[in-house]
Amino acid sequence: MPPQPQVIYQPVQSEEGSSGSDRLDPGPYLRVMQTIEERYPAEERGDLLIFLSGAAEIGIVAEAARTLAALTKRWVVLPLHSGLSASEQDKVFDVAPPGVRKCIVATNIAETSVTIDGVRFVIDSGKVKEMSFDPKAKMQRLQEFWISRASAEQRAGRAGRTGPGVCYRLYAESDYQAFAPYPVPEMQRVALDALVLQMKSMGLGDPRTFPFIEPPPLASVETAIRYLQDQGALDSSENLTTVGKLLADLPVDVVIGKILILGSTFDLVEPVLTLAAALSLQSPFLRQAGLECATARKPLESDQGDPFTLLNAFEEWLQVKSVRGGHSRKWCRRRALQEQRLYEMVNLRQQFKMLLKDHQLLREEGGSSKDSYRRQQRHRERQELQKVKRQHEEQDGRRRKVLRLEEEEEGSSEEEGSHRSGTHPRVVDIQDVKFKLRHNVEELHAAAVSQQLSPRCFQLLKLLVCCGLYPQLAVPDEFNSRRKDSEQIFHTQNKQGVVLHPTSVFSSNPGLLHVEEECHRETLGLRSEQSHHHQVLAFVSLLETNKPYLLNCVRVPALQYLLLSARSLDTSADCGRVVVDGWLELVLADPAVGVQILSNVMRLRDSWEQVLTDQLKLTEQHGGADDEEEQRRIRHLRESLCQRLMDFLEAEVPYSIRQLTGLERQNLFVGPQLVTDMPLLEVLSVGSECQPHPLKGGLAVNEYLTYNCLAGQDLYSGCLRTFWTCPTCDLRLPLTPLERWQHETGCRAKAEEGEQAASASILGSRPSVPRGLQQPFHCDHCQQDFLFTPTQILRHKWQHR
Predict the structure, then answer these.
(1) pTM, entire model
(2) How far is CA 11 from CA 29, 106, 170, 326, 398, in A?
């Protein structure tokens, strides 16, 4: 049993410094280092481990400690935190020269995750930064807390594990007694989306009433359920959907899983695999980049968003790797990139690819006889690499690395023999060797196809990523164009006043998010002007440190993205005004265009769901006799949908967008109405399956669209019909928007049935069974019974007027 370390309390009188600023004062840490120098001879071995709360604090103390080390020549200062590369972290295990001590400045990563031999002294700041979750704002917070008593004992135990040690605590003993006994359980401070999804898939009942040993906050459970419903994993009854069952089987985050599913469904697997891997890991870009690094990094930046900048960096790195003799390490250093993160992206990408294959979302491609030469060549290369790896491991096992007293911050450590003799042996990049052993660089480079995508395919890829991220979106503040670049403000549905993270491509170029061209200068009584250039940001996560930051953002056209992804669309009687998810208002310059756009949206969303559902059903039934025929049918539907999606995204429609105020949200809907009180509802519901919405009022057209339910309008204006000519059957009638949608649905169904029957012979598939559009109808005027479609019912009624 290791001896108990000596504990010395040295409370800091003014922890924030005498100037009153928030900057950490490194003085107390330097005084302890000087005390160690005075009390303990340099010949006595024993290194120092300092526990701080975060990377910023580590930088401050390490910088001051290096200044002291330069004067005394008694210390080698080494930082240790998760943001460092693997090679920089490994330096803490190297040996200091005789008469010199290591000063390791670390976060709580050194508390339990890493054991460093030779540590005799510990300085405990008593602080830790932990991630907590705000269910109301759907936001993570990285905040500084006092540690628990258990953590304090764990830190003290790092001192003198093999001999007598000393722990200096920079807080009072009374503070220690006031600490919580144990840290807060992780379940009570993280998002519960994945947990709730797994509980649903295992049939464990309602997560709200599950007997947890350490129950999470009920608000976090409710937020997780709503989020899974927004993502389409749970239906309105909180049961798993087809997508939800597959997401539960994929051991990844819900957003990443949905992006992978969409990418495989729409045949954009390779770039989606890279994006999913990049978004699952810490960014490889270092923030401490100088002007030269920023200039070299500039060609990698994408004006579409941060995930595509990561995609560019990854594919450019693969390009360097594929060139024989390419120096990827030098390339990464020049652009301030952590190559270790890129290696992790490759490995994670391969794991995602295997997951898709295991779940039949990605088919195996059979090899050909033409590849035999390549396989032989690959086998010879692997043999050579295995030989290099064995030689490196044998040599590395015999060598003892010794840290250099000068320039230790540059990361140079030499072997004892080579340093003394002045010779430098050939350095083997063992990470590169392992990478080439595990992966085929040529195949990886061939899969990096994003730069070869057509503009339309790239727009589809961006749409798939953003649909996977929904409802994580932010809208720019209306006055951003008048603010400085560093003062740009954005708003989410549940959090106001968030800002872009400094690492975002939009942070250095916010003009990409401003409205470039106003189509109509008049504001129509609104604060936001009419334009077809409005954009919103889809983001991966919302993190609050000293400010709430948006991380990994993608810009996307506001109107098209919101209408295609929203869970709730509420319209006025003329469809010139649409409210999205109860917090964003879209006002179109031409209400007639709004009717047509909503008609297109309903058609696109129905086709989207059909393609996704059919593809997932085919995945479940993989191996059937009609597999190839069904694949051809789904491919035909997908290509047709993609073409219509691209046309919709490229449409230029002038509109305004603004965020509703709290008072406007409270008085947004007309409320429940009776048919007898509103003749409008009786007129519009004739021959329709639409029913009055029980809460909002108006008519529920489908699960996401409610027609004519917004307050502050003439509710009877929906009775006013305008003449309209059907582009399919050339019928010209005065119709309300709802009647027009019903007519278009009937005509479109007949046209699609004809197209399916015509394409059945081409695709070699059986024509699908027509949907039952006709329904019994009794006419009170002519006292006859008919079997009519909704359009035929309207036409027949119109004849009696």
Answers:
(1) 0.82
(2) 11, 20, 5, 53, 45
